[in-house]
Write the structure tokens for this entry.
Amino acid sequence: MAYLTAATAKDRDQRLADFADAAVTAQIAAFKEIAESYRGVAFETTTATAVKVPGRADRKLATPHLKLISLSAASLDGTALTSDERADVTIWADEGILERAAGWSATQVSLTYTHGYASPPAAVLDACTEYVLCVLRARASGVSRNTLSEATEAGTTRYSTPDWYAGRPTGWLEVDRLLNSLPDYRTPGIA
């Protein structure tokens, strides 16, 4: 699912009315991928499946996602856990960890779970709308990116381009400001 539909994006910013719904929808999807990778979390409730191979018979099992909501299915070496056994699993939501008193001793653990925010924060919706507008307008008019610095006398102009390590995941300054206002759930040192 997308944060916004083409219609809701156009309602949020009337300047998007000039663009086809398909183009708006494509840029919403592109933004979602960037935002969730950059901040390390899904900004809406998402269902995921994962197959894990526990290193040893440990009580805690890390999932690939954070902000866990619920565990809907799990199996150990192909044998499904009952609903009572799943109810005994403790969810460490912000850490993305499932803890089971009986441990996860198996060659392979298959999981189905939900994770992410219940709904996108306002900053994500604002950033998404702005991103869609910036990208589509730039493509339609050939307008360059935001200017970071400019020198005169037949000068030098430096444009903002994507650079995650500099806090510019999209290169659009307002979009990046909004994304940087959100919590970062990525593992320190990993981009």
Notes: The helical segments are 6-12, 21-39, 83-87, 122-141, 173-180. The first strand starts at residue 46 and ends at 52. The two ends are 24 Å apart (CA to CA). Residues 122-141 form the longest helix (20 residues).
